[in-house]
Specification:
single chain; mainly alpha; 2 strands; disordered N terminus
Length: 168
């Protein structure tokens, strides 16, 4: 019977280009964005919760899912590393992202809301409130995607062996 470490050691390393790794990271991010948006909208529109606690909880759930998928699929070379060490770094980065997101989402939301209202912009039957919430979340989401990729690539999962990185 093989242990997971033995199995990993016997598996030949397949180098991954950084572009491919970013693509995988972005796919994981897309899935987590869907989870995040879905839950944020469920909490605000479905349950009537306030925006800031709703987005904080939806973000937290998406982060846990993100760590699991990143460790297993985007950075499989690092699965033999300490989960506690990696997860704590991942959480620190995501708390920084959540902090940035929390302080920027309300001003962006108000800004988008005022534009939607003054310009009388409508998208189907969606209210200006729902649209402004989602537009604000898109803007902060793109910013955090880029910052999180860089921080996780070079800190959380920075111990990817050189033999696992394909040169262009």
């Amino acid at each position: 019977m093989h242990t997971s470490k033995q199995k990993l050691a016997e598996t030949p390393a397949t180098p991954t280009s950084e572009a491919m790794r970013f693509g995988k990271f972005a796919l994981v991010g897309t899935l987590n964005t869907l989870i995040d948006f879905g839950l944020m909208n469920l909490f605000t529109a479905g349950f009537g919760w306030q925006l800031v606690p709703s987005q904080a909880l939806s973000f937290t759930i998406a982060v846990i899912n993100s760590y699991i998928l990143n460790r297993k699929w985007v950075y499989p070379e690092t699965t033999e590393k300490s989960i506690a060490n990696q997860f704590s770094k991942f959480v620190i980065i995501n708390i920084a992202g959540l902090t940035l997101r929390t302080v920027t989402i309300s001003p962006l939301d108000r800004w988008f809301y005022s534009i939607l209202e003054t310009q009388q912009i409508k998208v189907g039957s969606l209210s200006s409130t729902i649209l402004s919430h989602n537009l604000a979340l898109i803007v902060v989401g793109v910013l955090i995607l880029i910052l999180n990729f860089l921080a996780n690539r070079f800190w959380t999962f920075g111990d990817v062996p050189r033999s696992h990185i394909k040169n262009p």
